[in-house]
User: What shape does this take?
Amino acid sequence: MTDLLDTPDAMAPNDSGPEKSAYISMTVADDSAFKKCVKLKSMELPIDQISMKMEGDGVDPALLDKPSNVSPNDVGASRTAIAS
Assistant: This one.
């Protein structure tokens, strides 16, 4: 029998994983399209400059203030909007 400490990345015997219907949405901070802008904000670059870059890239700068919101590039978000 293997010890749990020997295999820390293995799935626990009583854990069945996420529900099959569970969907984990992609946040603005996790979206590759916004990662650079979120990083620039964390480096305390002027918000005006970051906003201009985002507008130039065709992205809504208001998303920078809400990094935990669901990204507009999330596939599940568009499916939810269609279903509504």
The chain has a mean pLDDT of 79.
